[in-house]
Design a protein that fits this description.
Layout lengths: L1 H30 L11 E5 L5 H10 L6 H10 L8 E5 L5 H9 L8 E4 L6 H11 L4 H8 L2 H10 L24 E4 L6 H18 L1 H6 L4 H14 L3 H16 L7 H7 L11 H4 L26 H8 L8 E4 L5 E4 L2 H13 L7
Antiparallel strand pairs: 1-2, 3-4, 5-6
Helix pairs in contact: 5-6, 10-11, 10-14, 11-14
Length: about 350
């Protein structure tokens, strides 16, 4: 009888132990489930650099993202969670403990970076509006920085390709043509205009440094090369046409002829191409940018008039070999080169007859 009693007691003990273990497992698993599975709430939680695991757990509990701190500590040990990373996270009460800790240990921080694409052939007015649309800055913030003479002077000291030429009083925007057009990613919308300019200028440095030996051999300064390249950028549409246009520009400069480029005239009066037609008064207006104006024989505009691509820079440094002095484009943007004005007029007349002449 005694042996049977002991066996019964042993069995009951085992059952109780298993029951207790099972109950503990059920309770533990329940404590790892979401605080509120139906919640749609999103919470931003900042895990600071150097924060201990205990403090991280405490913060998660304060934010009502975990059910129990003790269970969380045990879960971390059992699952060897050792890499809880600093950063800003988006978490929800609908996430279970594994998901919450997994997000933090994988460093899946909130990505609020901003990707911006600065286009080729765009002027500073476009850049200012674009920065305003994509960041916390206003267009006026851009223009204000460009008017900061101390800032511009510091840049001239920092970058080998920036010279006092950009401080000419006739230049609208000192960094026009010097901000390299490319796609860039910034930390967030609060990036400053100064930070944006630095990234773009650093890329310009990289591009121009590739051609530094050719620039040094050239009879033109960096400022003049970029001024020509900006015209080429706006007038040409492929490698061949750009190299040809670059040669026409240099041929006309050498012969002390005016460039007579429409794109410089539009820039001079601060009207974008295609916005409207120009008035005769505007076309003939005296302005250091307007290469159709008086006293512009053999002169480039006072500075670049748009962002420039590497291809346009290469075209200026290695133009086509020809004696052309004129070029026109048809409505499909195909470029036609001529040696004389009369040849050019013949080309224009043919294009008009063929319905290829661009009419405003």
């Amino acid at each position: 009888m005694k042996e049977k009693k002991y066996i019964i007691i042993l069995i009951l003990g085992i059952v109780l132990i298993f029951g207790a273990v099972f109950g503990l497992v059920v309770w533990f698993n329940n404590m790892t489930e979401p605080v509120d599975e139906a919640s749609t709430e999103k919470k931003e939680v900042e895990i600071e650099q150097g924060m201990s695991t205990v403090k991280i757990i405490s913060k998660l509990k304060e934010e009502n993202l975990i059910k129990d701190e003790f269970v969380t500590k045990i879960f971390i040990r059992l699952n060897n969670v050792t890499n809880l990373q600093a950063g800003r996270y988006e978490l929800s009460p609908s996430m279970n403990l594994e998901e919450v800790l997994g997000t933090i240990s994988k460093g899946n921080v909130i990505k609020d970076d901003v990707t911006m694409t600065f286009l080729e052939g765009k002027n500073m007015r476009w850049i200012a509006k674009y920065i305003e649309s994509e960041t916390s800055n206003s267009a006026d913030d851009v223009f204000d920085l460009l008017e900061d003479k101390e800032y511009i002077s510091k840049l001239i000291e920092e970058y080998w390709f920036l010279t006092d030429e950009i401080q000419d009083e006739n230049i609208y925007y000192p960094l026009e043509g010097y901000l390299y057009p490319e796609t860039y990613t910034f930390k967030n919308k609060d990036v400053t205009v100064e930070e944006i300019f630095k990234v773009l200028l650093d890329e310009t440095d990289t591009i121009l440094t590739k051609y530094k030996k050719y620039i040094e051999k050239s009879k033109y300064s960096v400022h003049e090369i970029l001024s020509m390249a900006s015209i080429v950028e706006l007038e040409g549409n492929d490698v061949e046409s750009r190299r040809g246009i670059a040669r026409v520009i240099q041929n006309r400069l050498e012969k002390n002829m005016p460039l007579g480029s429409d794109v410089t005239t539009y820039y001079a009066i601060k009207v974008d191409m295609g916005e409207r037609n120009l008035y005769s008064k505007e076309i003939n207006e005296s302005n250091p940018y307007n290469t159709r104006g008086p006293n512009m024989n053999g002169k480039l505009p006072v500075g670049p008039i748009s962002t420039v691509s590497e291809e346009s820079i290469k075209s200026v440094l290695g133009p086509a070999k020809n004696d052309y002095l004129y070029f026109v484009a048809d409505k499909n943007k195909k470029i036609y080169f001529s040696l004389t004005y009369s040849e050019q007029q013949n080309v224009i007349n043919k294009l008009k007859k063929q319905g290829l002449w661009f009419e405003y």
